[in-house]
Amino acid sequence: MKMTLKGARVNAGLKVAKVADLIGVNKATIYNWESGLTEPKAGQIALLVELYGIRPDNLKLKKEIENGNT
Question: How many independent structural domains does the chain possess?
């Protein structure tokens, strides 16, 4: 099942500030990713899925939502 960035973070029990610190970005960047304003780069996605304990193909990004892919 595909999860949004926010859903994956919440499911992993992580706060925005902790994820931002671990990834090396600021909290606003995490909020922008989760709201779909911007998207993480490939290397950042790899770090996020590792933190969240999910596979990359289980992560739903904004471009997939807009294209109707679930």
Answer: 1
Tens digits of pLDDT across the chain (70 residues): 799 999 999 999 999 999 999 999 999 999 999 999 999 999 999 999 999 999 999 998 866 544 555 4
On whether residue 9 sits in a domain, the answer given is: yes
Q: Under a CB-based contact definition with an 8 Å cutoff, are residues 56 and 49 in contact?
A: yes
Angle formed by the axes of helices 27-35 and 16-23, nearest 10°: 110
Place of tokens 């989760």: 34
Domain span at residue 52? 3-57
Model confidence, pTM: 0.85
